[in-house]
Structure formats: C-alpha cells, structure tokens
Q: What sequence folds into this?
C-alpha cells in the first residue's frame, strides 16, 4: 500500500512508522516489542511451538469469509499480546487506555502502550500470522497515521484481498481484549469511532474463543 489518502488525509513518508520502527523480518524466536509510549523501550520475546500452535488454533476451522477471519485475527492478536506480554511485562492492565483515549504516561510506566507501541507491535503479530499462512482473506499493509483536533493516532492496517482497508487498533481496549477492526476510512475520518461492545478478554488459562 502506498500513502493512504482518504478524504484529504494522508500518511506522508515522515510519519511512516512502518519504515522507522517496524522490523521487517520478525520471527517467533525474536519478537521485538515496543512499550513505554513511543517505543521508548524495546524488549525481545519468543514464542515456542506450543505457544504458536495455540495461536494457530484460533484460526481453526478455517474461516469461510473475510468477516469471520477478522474476528479470528482479533482474537489471535489478543492472545499474542498476553503471551509476549508475560515476557516483557506488558501483560498488565492498560490504565492509560480510557474511553477511547490514551492518558499521558508522565511516570514513564514501561508496562503501558500508546498507539505507536500498539500499532508497531500489532504489525509484527499480523506479519507473523501472514507468513505462517494463517491469513487467507487479508494481507498486512503499512501502518496508518492521522492527526486532527483529537491529536495524532496510529494504527496497524489489514487489507481485505481485492477490497477495502481495515484499521486494527488495540489502543482502544485493554490488553488481552480482542481489538476492534473497523474500516480504515472510518478510523481516519470519524473520531472517536463508534464501536460495538468489546468482546471478553482472552484468558491464557481458558480455551481461546474461535
């Protein structure tokens, strides 16, 4: 995807976090996670075969349509957040995520994630899913950026193959809650977005919802 341009909003090169922060070749043995706001801290994590099998199980049975696959993707992202966060310290309540806004992290709490951290990390998780062949109706696109009276915001992006783009934005929910996936045009132009009720958080001690 080139620069995103929808109703006059664009993602110029100087704001392309895909280039500056996203590591192009993440692997299960070396996952670099941003945290602490603005990718102030980075920590490495790894997912073993058993952990990845659990993530792959979220995509079984294989989705028959793109909408179902987006729900699977959201649950997969939430599960990876928890598995990685156990190793990096970010599987913690995101007190900074409140009412579709992100509160300042004046104390420099490294467990907290702003929209930059969330966008970069989600891109990494989605890329791992895509490269393992778990996505059949979507591809991973570049991050997107918007700035308006509400301030700047960033998000990971999926493109339905042959179709529209979708924002997947965990900064709108707490850690471990399947993040909302909404049309990118709505994410860019209507803020705060109207969201359906959040799904129940993923629990590591329970079966993963499908």
A:
């Amino acid at each position: 995807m080139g620069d995103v341009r929808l109703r006059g909003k664009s993602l110029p090169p100087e704001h392309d976090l895909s280039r500056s922060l996203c590591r192009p070749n993440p692997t299960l043995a070396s996952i670099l996670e941003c945290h602490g706001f603005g990718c102030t801290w980075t920590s490495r994590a790894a997912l073993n075969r058993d952990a990845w099998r659990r993530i792959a199980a979220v995509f079984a049975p294989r989705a028959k349509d793109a909408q179902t696959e987006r729900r699977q993707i959201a649950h997969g992202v939430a599960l990876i957040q928890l598995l990685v966060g156990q190793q990096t310290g970010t599987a913690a309540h995101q007190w900074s995520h409140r009412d579709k806004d992100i509160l300042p992290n004046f104390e420099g709490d490294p467990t907290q994630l702003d929209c930059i951290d969330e966008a970069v990390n989600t891109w990494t998780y989605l890329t791992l899913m895509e490269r393992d062949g778990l996505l059949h109706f979507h591809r991973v696109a570049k991050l997107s950026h918007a700035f308006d009276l509400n301030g700047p915001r960033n998000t990971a992006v999926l493109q339905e193959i042959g179709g529209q783009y979708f924002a997947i934005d965990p900064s709108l929910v707490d850690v471990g809650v399947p993040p909302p996936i909404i049309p990118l045009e709505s994410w860019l132009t209507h803020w705060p977005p109207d969201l359906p009720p959040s799904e129940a958080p993923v629990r590591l001690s329970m079966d993963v919802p499908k």
